[in-house]
From TrEMBL:
The protein's name in its UniProt record: DNA-directed RNA polymerase
Enzyme class (EC, first level): transferase
InterPro entries per record: DNA-dir_RNA_pol_helix_hairp_sf, DNA-dir_Rpol_C_phage-type, DNA-dir_Rpol_phage-type, DNA/RNA_pol_sf, RNA_POL_N_sf, RPOL_N
CC per GO annotation: mitochondrial DNA-directed RNA polymerase complex
Reaction(s) the record says it catalyses: RNA(n) + a ribonucleoside 5'-triphosphate = RNA(n+1) + diphosphate
Highest classification ranks of the organism: Eukaryota, Fungi, Dikarya, Ascomycota, Saccharomycotina
Record keywords, A-Z: DNA-directed RNA polymerase, Mitochondrion, Nucleotidyltransferase, Transcription, Transferase, Transit peptide
Length: 1340
């Protein structure tokens, strides 16, 4: 038997050369050229080495869709991923570090190049370009970097010859081997047109541009695609004046504008209105658009002499010199929490305000000439929802919505970009007001203080920017000390001052630091905010630049301009690839914070100990120091207690940025991983924190169109239109303004009321109890304070959006679960937030709708475990209570609706139902109320379907039944039964006795619900403690009881859902093995010294919709950055570290289930959209109109069956087997076992053959050779492979041979490699998922 290839190293090398010379062909797909072959390279004169036969980690990152999956195989394209892009994440730590260092260097140089070009540091820019050129791996895309430089340099040149000479010199002498692309030519074309003398003969210009156009094989169409370079005037010259491009070679938006321009010119020459000629427009926007514009042009022209449009001109700046407090609305103003966060929210919301001109245009809107169908009362504010609701026909409503969408375009821009200017103006206004009232007013006014800080900081900021410019110009090379200098010149100093103040105050009491914040967090936050401001300014500048010379005023032409702006905006956001390095963000933030610390002061007062008189002075508002937090020394920025009191303890839990509000127009549809959501800021498809691996997979899947169905589902969620429920707002605001606690709204608290201190001689236990009680009081005060601030945000936003039509753009977490991008006010919020939201569009109730509205009311009240008929009857039995709730909702604290599980939503539904019943035929009522259908413990539903668990399926209502089963009551009953049995053997068990008497479904509900999502014993203990604490009182005793019950609940769940737990255990075991595995073609150097292998393998799978899920759990590494405040340690977004095996295992089962329920939701969303339904979701709660519940219910069931009709666990196993097929697991086995003895013996033989101690790299290499032989098409090679024995082949099935105990420990154990083999799938039960289609209570 051939144990090793030859007796010495020469024999091994000879075998390699022999195999290479024969061109071993493979039975599998080949790896890319950077993967190892049998090792070594071909000898001189021999044939080139063939590609490796070993498959890389993602040569098979394809989707294994079984026949019939989703019935539509064409809907999901296979993801073809190159190993070259992904082996970095699964190789060695050293290899990853080197590769990512290159990526980090490129990104740093990119950002520095961008900054230097913006600041006109041309010599430095050229030096940076040379550095980029010298990075070999970056050479392929270097022309993109050169184009940035070329565009900047050409802008200052005055002749075409000068530009041509520069480009020719650079690409020939400075950057040899680099060739022009279409964008380079577009730059030369644009600037040639720019410098051409006005009125001169066009022959020379045409000749020059003709030469340029011939430089790229892709031709004029590719050159004209660069709409971020060529302006509208450029296209006119190329098409009309020079005739060098054809109309069909232009981008569609430009074609439309040129065609519309010609129509306007023609009609103007004929002396007619351009608006009457829209029928001659090109058909780019369809016949429907032409019809719309024909109507709208007549509707929206208030006079015959002036052509106007219902769109705003420019996003107007709000003048805050006037005492504008809130958006003007016909609703009571709120008694606001007086915090900085609240002020910024209100400044931002002023973007919703309408000018008098806009109001006038709306007032003239009429479908019949001379008649204003809205009967606008000039004394009232404009309510678009009232207008829309008053329209009589579907055609009128459709037209109104299209016109409103146009009208809101510029309002949306104002909403997204206005916050900084508004804040500064407000500070100045308050300072002037306070100054007029005297010094005391200035001291009391927070805004006046902020204006003082701003005024004092601005001169220092300007000096710092000037000094940085001098340093850059004087520097002969890169300087670490001032490497941040080019970045400080990118944003206006005034804005940088405002941003610094806002960011620092928003971070108050974050990161576990009372009255302050962590320094590292502060500097990064400020630096990143400066970067985001720069990006936003650039986007607006580029947009204006392209269309700068357009002065057309007609409705049609402005429509085309808006379309062109949208396309340009999307292009810039999609291609945005530059991010500032974390070190630069930290240094920029540090400089700005240092300046603020230097000037910001607050007035203080105290008692002179000698004179006993009150004295006044000032003290620094911020100070830098260190403190220990959880045993770690942290740099912190403290906020002076006087300022903290003025901030009212507001935690400022989220940055209040303008892009975080609902949108007035439909969100940008998702078409790529960076293209969707808001219009003036980039949103990422996946919410991920420093996970380059996840980003790489998502980008690859997006480019291959594998996740188009995911985009479709997210776009459905984003296009659902909403408005604010006016009735509910009036009730809630009335409650709010009393300042008293009501339901989940905490009351106003001015100061903490502590318990009096015990006497000095009190027993220590009494003192400790006093301290504990006061700590709870302080925590409750802080919690209520924070909650009231958060609710204030929600209510102020709701008030501003009264009468508006708005949307919630969505993205998702790494598991595919969808979330609105606007955090403060959305339908994922609490009961109050949800009650304030209603669908913009209404639908006639009909018979089914009336019934489902009643069912919805019962569900909200908590009556959801009885049959549908019983729920309807419950509502009909309480009609008097419902009418009383509507007529007198706040009459007493004993109202029927207040006892509901979800009282605010219950009241909203009461209003809707009573309004319907007022009609002679309630079925004719147009309902806007969202009606919910909730799953029964959705995670367990998926587990039951995966495992074919009949008992579990019955408990979670997958099987048809006459009434709904209550899984929480079922578990509670099982726990009770188990405790009764336990008391038979342990009659003195006091805890068991307690729970036998007191257990109920409410106590176990949260633990049952979250158990499937990986809740730990500690987490379950805290959940149960929250339910039983009031019954027991003593905290320590309550926790002990809760821990006891948590264990019993876990046992009862396993008892009730055995098949589900077998699946859960299988997922966990798969993860354990994958996490301890390495690639067979791993870098030899990392194993030569028998070092412990680097475990780099994440658990990765593909959802049924094609979304690649990468668990981001890796060890955290920090990078040290020296700033002028302190040395900070920040996370490195380019770091690829070893995986965290514990978190990988704990996260995989719940994350897999989350990925399935996310897929089900997105599939259901797409189907409902196709059926014409409005659709929204809160994870496993799906919403639509009452009338559409039967259709949605049918879709939910069909999509669940479509999801699970494929054996998803078998599909996952197949994907794992393919993805990880050439991986080996590292494990320990007993040295004295039969396998251990055989492996030791073979290692000894290999040592003798090599003449040195064998190492892990040798063992891996031997296995590579064996597999290469086995996969050859030559019989002789295959036979050699069969005869060859390696340490890895000897360790076959080691995981199954040894117990877990035998694999643990170090004594008497040896480390081996064994082929990664995943455990067999647990046997599946008899449940047929198709029966879900007939289950009334699956979702109900």
């Amino acid at each position: 038997m051939l144990r090793f290839a030859g007796k010495d190293r020469l024999a091994v090398a000879a075998l390699r050369r022999r195999l290479l010379a024969r061109h071993i062909s493979t039975k599998n797909s080949v790896l890319c050229d950077n993967m190892s072959t049998v090792a070594g390279s071909a000898a001189p004169g021999t044939a080139a080495a063939p590609s490796s036969t070993l498959q890389g980690p993602d040569s098979l990152a394809k989707q294994y869709l079984q026949p019939g999956f989703l019935k539509d195989k064409s809907a999901v394209s296979p993801v073809t991923l190159s190993s070259r892009d992904f082996d970095i994440f699964t190789g060695s730590q050293i290899g990853a570090t080197v590769r990512m260092a290159n990526k980090r260097d490129v990104m740093s140089l990119w950002s520095l190049l961008e900054a230097c070009l913006q600041a006109n540091y041309n010599e430095r820019s050229l030096s940076i370009l040379k550095s980029l050129y010298n990075i070999e791996s970056h050479r392929r895309t270097f022309i993109d970097d050169y184009n940035l430089y070329c565009s900047h340099m050409c802008a200052s040149m005055t002749s075409t010859a000068e530009m041509s000479k520069m480009v020719q010199h650079d690409l020939t002498n400075v950057f040899p081997g680099v060739t022009m692309n279409a964008k380079t030519v577009a730059i030369l074309v644009h600037h040639s047109i720019r410098v051409a003398p006005k009125g001169a003969d066009l022959a020379d210009l045409k000749s020059d541009i003709s030469i340029f156009l011939s430089q790229v094989p892709s031709g004029p169409k590719a050159i004209c695609a660069n709409v971020d370079v060529l302006t509208y005037d450029d296209f006119k010259v190329l098409y009309r004046d020079l005739g060098l491009v054809k109309l069909q070679q232009l981008p569609s938006n430009i074609r439309d504008m040129l065609a519309a321009d010609e129509v306007e010119a023609t009609t103007a020459a004929a002396g007619t209105k351009s608006t009457d000629s829209t029928a001659t427009l090109p058909p780019a926007d369809s016949a429907e658009f032409n019809s719309l514009m024909n109507s709208a042009s007549k509707i929206l022209n208030p006079s015959a002499t002036t052509t106007t449009t219902i769109t705003t001109t420019e996003a107007s700046k709000v003048e805050l010199d006037k005492d504008v407090e809130t958006v003007e609305k016909d609703a009571r103003q709120l008694v606001n929490v007086d915090t900085l966060g609240m002020k910024v929210i209100r400044h931002t919301l002023l973007g919703l305000s309408l000018t008098d001109e806009q109001k006038g245009r709306i007032a003239n809107f009429s479908f019949n000439a001379g008649e204003n169908i809205f009967n606008l009362d000039e004394a009232k504010t404009i309510n678009f929802f009232d207008m829309y609701s008053s329209l009589k026909t579907p055609e009128e409503r459709e037209l109104f919505e299209k016109v409103l969408e146009d009208f809101n375009q510029d309002r949306q821009q104002s909403l997204e970009v206005r916050a900084t200017d508004a804040a500064k103006e407000r500070w100045r206004h308050d300072f002037e007001e306070a100054k007029a009232r005297g010094d005391i007013a200035i001291k009391k006014s927070l805004n006046a203080k902020l204006w003082n800080w701003y005024s004092d900081m601005l001169p220092l900021m300007k000096k710092e920017v000037a000094r940085c410019k001098r340093e850059v110009l004087a520097a002969k090379g890169p300087s670490k000390k001032y490497d941040y200098a080019p970045y400080l010149a990118l944003v206006n100093p005034e804005k940088m001052c405002v941003i610094t103040i806002l960011e620092l105050l928003k971070l108050n009491s974050t990161g576990g630091i009372a009255e302050g914040m962590r320094t590292a967090r502060a500097v990064i936050s400020v630096g990143k905010s400066i970067e985001m401001e720069f990006r936003s300014e650039q986007l607006l500048k580029n947009e204006s630049y392209m269309l700068k010379d357009i002065n057309k005023k007609s409705n049609e032409f402005k429509k085309y301009i808006r379309n062109a702006k949208k396309s340009l905006r999307s292009l810039h956001l999609d291609e945005a690839k530059v991010i500032w390095p974390q070190s630069i963000r930290a240094k920029v933030g540090s400089v700005l914070i240092s300046l603020l610390i230097n000037v910001a002061r607050v007035p203080v007062e105290g008692i002179d100990p000698i004179t006993n008189q009150k004295v006044y002075g000032d003290a620094p508002a911020f100070s830098h120091s260190y403190q220990y937090h959880s045993g770690i020394k942290l740099g912190v920025i403290r906020i002076h207690p006087a300022l903290t009191r003025q901030l009212n303890g507001d935690k400022m839990i989220a940055s209040v940025q303008p892009q975080l509000l609902p949108m007035l127009v439909k969100p940008r549809p998702w078409v790529s991983s960076k293209s969707g959501g808001y219009y003036y800021s980039q949103s990422n498809l996946v919410r991920t924190k420093d996970s380059p691996e996840q980003t790489a997979y998502i980008d690859a899947a997006s480019k291959s169109h594998a996740i188009d169905q995911v985009y479709d589902g997210l776009n459905v969620l984003g296009e659902t239109s909403w408005t604010v429920n006016r009735r509910m707002f009036d009730v809630i605001s009335q409650v709010w303004n009393t300042g008293k606690p009501f339901l989940e709204i905490p009351g106003i608290q001015q100061a903490i009321q502590y318990l009096p201190r015990p006497p000095s001689d009190a027993d220590p236990s009494v003192v400790n109890k006093w301290k504990e009680q006061n700590k709870e009081i302080a925590n409750e005060f802080a919690s209520n304070r924070s909650m009231r601030c958060d609710m204030n945000y929600k209510l102020e936003i709701a008030r501003a959006f009264l009468g508006e039509k708005f949307y919630f753009p969505h993205n998702m977490d790494f598991r595919g679960r969808a979330y609105p991008l606007s955090p403060h006010f959305n339908h994922l919020g609490n009961d109050m937030s949800r009650s304030l939201l209603t669908f913009w569009k209404g639908k006639r109730l009909g018979k089914d709708g009336l019934m489902w509205l009643k069912v919805h009311l019962a569900n909200l009240y908590g009556v959801n475990k009885v049959p549908i008929e019983g729920r309807v009857q419950f509502v009909e039995d309480h009609m008097d209570d419902i009418r009383n709730a509507v007529e007198n909702p706040l009459e007493s604290n004993d109202q029927w609706w207040l006892k509901s599980d979800k009282p605010w939503q219950t009241l909203a539904t009461c209003y809707e139902l009573i309004e319907a019943l007022k009609l002679e035929n309630p079925e004719d009522f147009i309902s806007h109320q969202p009606v919910h259908q909730d799953g029964t413990c959705n995670g367990l539903q998926h587990y039951a379907a995966l495992g074919g668990d009949m008992i579990g399926a019955s408990q979670v209502n997958l099987i048809p039944d006459v009434k709904p089963n209550d899984v929480y009551m079922h578990v509670a009953n099982n726990v009770k039964a188990n405790l009764i049995e336990k008391l038979k053997t342990k009659p003195d068990d006091e805890i068991a006795k307690f729970f036998v008497e007191n257990i109920n479904r409410k106590i176990v509900k949260q633990t049952v619900m979250t158990h499937v999502y990986g809740v730990t014993l500690v987490g379950a203990t805290l959940q149960i403690d929250k339910q039983i604490h009031a019954m027991i009182g003593d905290k320590k005793k309550s926790l002990a009881y809760a821990n006891y019950l948590a264990k019993e609940v876990f046992a009862a769940i396993r008892q009730s859902f055995n098949s589900a737990h077998l699946i859960q255990d299988w997922l966990g075991e798969c993860c354990t093995r994958i996490s301890k595995s390495i690639r067979l073609d791993i870098d030899r150097k990392s194993l030569e010294k028998n070092n412990k292998p680097d475990f780099m393998t994440s658990v990765i799978w593909t959802t049924p919709l094609g979304l690649p899920i990468v668990q981001p759990y890796r060890e955290v590494s920090k990078k040290q950055v020296d700033t002028n405040l302190q040395t900070v340690f920040i996370s490195d977004p380019f770091a690829v570290n070893q995986i965290n095996a514990r978190r990988q295992k704990a996260g995989f089962p719940p994350n897999f289930i989350h990925s399935l329920d996310a897929s089900h939701m997105l599939m259901s969303a797409s189907k409902c959209y196709k059926d014409g339904l409005e659709f929204a979701s809160v994870h496993d709660s799906y919403w639509t109109h009452a009338a559409d519940i039967p259709t949605m219910n049918k879709n939910l069931r069909e999509q669940f069956v479509a999801l699970h009709e494929v054996d998803l666990i078998e599909r996952l196993k197949n994907e794992f087997d393919e993805r990880y097929q050439n991986y080996v697991k590292v494990m320990k086995i007993p040295t004295d076992s039969e396998m251990g003895i055989k492996i030791s013996k073979l290692r000894q033989e290999m040592t003798e053959q090599l003449g040195r101690p064998v190492n892990f790299a040798d063992e891996i290499e031997a296995e590579q050779q064996r597999l290469a032989l086995l996969q050859s098409t030559q019989e002789e090679d295959v036979e050699r492979g069969k005869q060859m024995v390696t340490t890895i082949s000897l360790a076959e099935n080691a995981d199954e041979i040894f117990t877990n105990e035998e694999k643990k420990g170090d004594s008497g154990r040896m480390v081996i490699f064994t082929r990664l083999v995943l455990p067999e799938i647990p046997s599946k039960g008899d449940f047929d998922v198709a029966s879900v289609k007939d289950s009334t209570y699956f979702f109900s």
